[in-house]
Amino acid sequence: MNGLLTDLYELTMAAGYFETGRSAQWATFELSIRRLPRNRDYVLLAGLEQALEYLLNLRFTGPEIDYLRTLPQFSLVSAAFFEHLRDFRFTGDVFAAPEGTMLFAGEPVMTVRAPLMEAQIPETYLLSTLTFQTLIATKAARMVRQAAGRDVVEFGTRRAHTPQAGVLGARAAYIGGCSATSNTQTGFRFGIPVVGTAGHSWVMSYLTEQEAFQKLQQVLGVNTVQLVDTYDSIEGTRRVASLGPPLWGIRLDSGDLVALSRQARAILDSAGLHATKIMASGDLDETKIGDLIASGAPIDSFGVGTELATSGDAPSMGAIYKLVEVEGRYTAKHSENKASLPGPKQLFRFPDRDVVALASEPVPPGATAVLEPVILKGALAAASPDLPSIRRAAAKSLRTVGPRPVDYSDALKTLMTQV
Amino acid sequence: MNGLLTDLYELTMAAGYFETGRSAQWATFELSIRRLPRNRDYVLLAGLEQALEYLLNLRFTGPEIDYLRTLPQFSLVSAAFFEHLRDFRFTGDVFAAPEGTMLFAGEPVMTVRAPLMEAQIPETYLLSTLTFQTLIATKAARMVRQAAGRDVVEFGTRRAHTPQAGVLGARAAYIGGCSATSNTQTGFRFGIPVVGTAGHSWVMSYLTEQEAFQKLQQVLGVNTVQLVDTYDSIEGTRRVASLGPPLWGIRLDSGDLVALSRQARAILDSAGLHATKIMASGDLDETKIGDLIASGAPIDSFGVGTELATSGDAPSMGAIYKLVEVEGRYTAKHSENKASLPGPKQLFRFPDRDVVALASEPVPPGATAVLEPVILKGALAAASPDLPSIRRAAAKSLRTVGPRPVDYSDALKTLMTQV
After folding, report:
1. ω before A246 within 30° of 0 (cis)?
2. Which residues of chain B have pLDDT under 50?
3. What is the DSSP letter of B39?
4. Three-state DSSP class for residue A216
5. Among A170, A344, B11, B17, which is least packed, fewest CB within 10 Å?
6. What span, in angstroms and rounded, lies between the C-alpha atoms of B207 and A234?
7. Chain A residues within 8 A of B308 when measuring between CB atoms
């Protein structure tokens, strides 16, 4: 189960460790942030729950093993390796920063300590699942900040990189501060508030916009959000105003959102619909949201899709997963501009700075240790926190952890010169 | 099964159609390309097989339906709707361009003709699965073109937006012309060639690079690719040269790839290793590949990751899914800069131009009709082609379909003025 959901080289290395009698040597790998994504001065960690689920359930099925046997890369590998894969499970320890933690360039995110083969195979999956959700949570946080207290709702599944990415992206967006998602499966699986009413096809399916609006109110009552721009946003808003309650509000999805929201607000107010809200959507990002807020546009809620679901201006981040220790020997990589630091590490967070230290160092006064045990001897160290708790932790982290220098401890510096 | 993997508004609209007695009215939705992705003058369609699998298997489970009942948006909806969901399946017809087809802005990709409710619900999933794979196939095609006959291998799962996106992205990259992938599950599921040997951790896990290289050859034989940049690329290459065969080649993953590949080639040649190949990797995109080729760097194969797996410079595309007809009445949307065209359509491809026409028009002499029946009455119209066939069709499309004007037929223009 998911055993093959990794780069082939993880499996050829696993075979190599096994064939040369080293697969049971204990090693530590570290997942860390080499570079922040473009346009970012921090990231907000998300995706840990899925990373842990993967480690706890990592198995190889019979057909998967049979497939590996057919590959030329395994032609010299002994039958004993494939037998070993049948019983494979992750038995190691994992330390990680909690979801919702703000992190900076150069900082460790997770350490995986296990027999060499068990720690090697998860590299690909862990990098993908942690960096993707981290990108989306971070993008959401930037949008929520610009919205200055107005709701930001995640609408982006149709632009996500597979529908499955839509589900987990919506989870991450909620951690980043979005108040709800349009993704129904995310609501079902994670208990996140879901929203949605009707699209243009609803309006077009009726002979008149008037009838479409009436029928929607009949079905959705106070949850009705009328999408007013199918033909003309102002005409549509007038129709909404003349129909009156029940409804939650209207949605503007095209055109000049500043001008349209002002006109719509005036139309609604003059009909006495002061409580009727205005949602805006349509290719919004944090810059456009900030501009709308700065302009004083009377928008109560923002629906964001494409830019959030793909982290459009920064769709990747430079996280790495490197061997830092094997059988007590510290290791590092010296590649040009791509060096890695030796030894299992801890991140000490002070109010005004972070210190990357060796895991063996005591926590200094005034600091907290960011990496916590999450899996011990192959079992969960503690139940994963629920999403509202993670979302609150993220909000606190965003509020209290400012930009900061990231230093190395003296012990780490000494080790770096030695290795 | 996957019933909730959609935006909530598709389901509230479905409830609305049902409650107002319209869910069984036949309608046609069209998925089309409103705007090409940034930096693109065409796209290469991919993802159709997964889209069809979804439609054929779309169901709602008991727990999914129970969840919907708890949502405030469904509080006014009758029990009959939820009963109806239990038996829901897609019974309509689908016409689509084959995977591997080059397409341009304004062109239809797929039409879905079904009872209103059945055609509405799939919007979100279809958009996501088709646009994602299309983005990756297109990005791959751009890289392969720049590689001018050298192999391009897909390495990007660790940067994909979820590990699942890595699997389908690798499928799309193969359609776009990549020769292989590092994603083992993609190889298993789709029969695509997989490659992979060892990463830096393999080298670091040994006391000396010499021993790491020897052991890898022992395990992988002629499939060995030595990653030489863990400590120093030139020293590493000298070690490979002194060890000699068996091996496939070396991989350079950092530094000045032009200078390093020349030095490495000279070292290998002077050791008589003329058949030993050089692979280059490390944040490559089509521009860098083109520059390397133009410089005459002796690189035999390119490994590409981040930029390919995320379509980094263009991580989204403006595809839309719009109602074009209901019960014989043609529909269109007039929103500012976001208008849609009425009526079920066909795409006629001439050697030098494309014409978007009504589906009812006869195929003009000299043209081929691009959209083909793929699902009829809820069942596959024909088996999906295998991936090598799709890849060949893509290569032919890339070779023969140049940039071209996209016109509307006279009948479509007439209809546009009428609606």
Report:
1. yes
2. none
3. T
4. helix
5. A344
6. 73
7. none
Domains of chain B by range and CATH?
8-134+314-418 (3.20.140.10), 148-309 (3.20.20.70)
- Nearest-Cα distance to chain B for A264, in Å, is 16
Asked if B379 reaches chain A (Cβ–Cβ under 8 Å), the answer is no
Burial class from Cβ neighbours inside 10 Å (0-12, 13-18, 19+) for residue B167 reads: buried
A183: distance to nearest CA of chain B, Å? Answer: 5
In 3D, which of B130, B90, B113 has the Cα closest to residue B30?
B113
pLDDT score for A125:
98
**pTM for the complete prediction?**
0.98
Contacts 24+ apart (CB under 8 A), B272-277: B273/B240, B273/B241, B273/B244, B273/B245, B276/B240, B276/B245, B276/B247, B276/B248, B276/B249, B276/B250, B277/B248, B277/B249, B277/B250, B277/B301
What pLDDT was estimated at residue A13? Answer: 98
Q: Does A174 touch chain B (CB under 8 A)?
A: no
Nearest to B166 by CA among A53, A43, A306, A316: A316
- The answer to whether the CB of A204 falls within 8 A of the CB of B323 is yes
Query: Residue B302 in 3-state DSSP?
Result: strand
- Rounded to the nearest 5°, which phi and psi values hold at B44? -110, 115
Does the beta carbon of B115 lie under 8 angstroms from any beta carbon of chain A?
Answer: no
| pLDDT profile of chain A (419 residues), mean per 10 | 94 97 96 97 98 98 98 97 97 98 98 98 98 98 98 98 97 98 98 96 96 97 97 97 97 97 98 98 97 98 98 97 96 81 96 97 97 98 94 97 95 92
| Closest of B395, B410, B384, B394 to residue B55, by C-alpha | B384
Asked if the C-beta of A345 comes within 8 angstroms of chain B's C-beta atoms, the answer is: no
* A110 CB-near residues (< 8 Å, 6+ apart): A30, A31, A48, A51, A94, A95, A96, A97, A126, A130, A371
pLDDT score for B339:
80
Query: Are the Cβ atoms of A5 and B166 closer than 8 angstroms?
Result: yes
Count the Cβ atoms, other than its own, within 10 Å of residue A327. Answer: 10
Please check whether residue A149 is in contact with residue A161, taking contact to mean a CB–CB distance below 8 angstroms: no
Tell me which chain A residues have a C-beta less than 8 angstroms from the C-beta of B310: 161, 315-316
ipTM exceeds 0.85, yes or no = yes
Tokens 């721009």 sit at which residue? A229
**Cα–Cα distance between A397 and A140 in angstroms, integer?**
14
The type of residue at A52 is: L
Residues 6+ apart with CB under 8 A from A372: A95, A96, A97, A98, A381
Residue A338's pLDDT is what?
Answer: 78
Nearest Cα residue to B14 out of A202, A10, A397, A164: A202
Chain B residues inside the 8 Å CB shell of A248: none
Contact A230, B312 (CB under 8 A): no
User: Measured in whole angstroms, how far is the alpha carbon of residue A390 from the centre of its chain?
Assistant: 12
- Alpha-carbon distance of B360 to B374, in angstroms, equals 17
Burial of A360 (0-12, 13-18, 19+ CB in 10 A): exposed
Give the whole-angstrom CA distance, residue B202 versus residue B209: 9
A356 touches chain B (CB under 8 A): no
Assess contact for A157 and A410: CB atoms under 8 A: no
A6, A164, A310 member nearest B316 (Cβ): A310
Q: How does strand A102-103 pair with strand A354-358? A: unpaired
B252 lies within 8 A of chain A by CB: no
Buried b (16+ CB within 10 A) or exposed e, B70-80: ebebbebbeee
> Collapsing DSSP states into helix, strand and coil, what is residue A232?
coil
Q: Where are the alpha helices (DSSP H) in B208-326?
A: 209-220, 233-243, 257-270, 286-294, 306-309
